[in-house]
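Q: I'm building a small set of examples for a reading group on sequence design. Run inverse folding on the following structure and report the sequence directly after it, with nothing in between.
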């Protein structure tokens, strides 16, 4: 009951104030290079530029959600139909945007992708534009949810830090538990920052994870098919053998800014 009460108090289950699937109006600007997001608050590092064809974004704190928004995807299009396509572009959050009057700072590739074919240079010269955006499911091209063991992990000290990759769906992972295979003594990881979680007293032996994700109007446990082997190594990415395709069904009223037409 403790976990569920905590989630309720955090507003994880609340649909009255949740607006992630609404259409919003905002301003966006751009970084000059996608590489600028490598040092982003999500902690993806050099992996970031390989995500989503480099269509990346730093998100406003209300969307970054203290790291829970890392890996979230949004469809963004600018309002000037003479300048931009109706479809716009899909971006993935890899960084936290300081509250600078914009909801997103886009990689230059994502910013340019909003434009009609003959207007790319024009939108890049603008550097700032009005947009509509909405939350969408992430498509990682059939990649499974994976964890990367961070270099700071130290098996001799029972310390494990992991980075979540390829989460998928339109969800957020808000709790991670771990247990030695065959044991019932579950322990919880803490979010260190961004997409990185850690634990100071990790069990030995092969490790089973479980993830609590936002799904439907509340949430559910996701149980990976694969385990972290007893001989896990720093810097290695481990495939969890599952894909998260859930959708968090959240109420849009009164923040809905109209349909996506």
């Amino acid at each position: 009951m403790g976990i569920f009460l905590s989630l309720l108090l955090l507003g994880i289950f609340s649909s009255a104030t949740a607006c992630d699937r609404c259409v919003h109006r905002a301003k966006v600007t751009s970084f000059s290079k996608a590489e600028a997001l490598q040092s982003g608050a999500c902690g993806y590092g050099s992996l970031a530029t390989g995500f989503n064809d480099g269509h990346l974004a730093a998100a406003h704190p209300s969307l970054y959600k203290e790291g829970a928004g890392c890996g979230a995807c949004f469809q963004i299009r600018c309002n000037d139909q003479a300048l931009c396509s109706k479809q716009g572009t899909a971006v993935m959050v890899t960084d936290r945007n300081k509250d600078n009057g914009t909801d997103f700072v886009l990689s230059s590739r994502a910013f340019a992708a909003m434009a009609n074919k003959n207007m790319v240079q024009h939108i890049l010269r603008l550097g700032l534009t009005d947009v509509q955006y909405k939350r969408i499911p992430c498509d990682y091209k059939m990649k499974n949810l994976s964890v990367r063991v961070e270099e700071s992990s130290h098996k001799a000290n029972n310390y494990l830090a992991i980075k979540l990759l390829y989460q998928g769906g339109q969800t957020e992972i808000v709790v991670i538990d771990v247990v030695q295979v065959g044991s019932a003594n579950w322990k919880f990881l803490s979010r260190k920052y961004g997409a990185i979680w850690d634990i100071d007293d990790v069990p030995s032996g092969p490790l089973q994870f479980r993830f609590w994700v936002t799904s439907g109007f509340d949430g559910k446990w996701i149980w990976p098919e694969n385990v972290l082997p007893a001989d896990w190594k720093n810097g290695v990415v481990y495939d969890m053998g599952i894909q998260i395709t859930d959708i968090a069904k959240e109420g849009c009223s009164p923040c809905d800014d109209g349909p996506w037409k």
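The chain has a mean pLDDT of 86.
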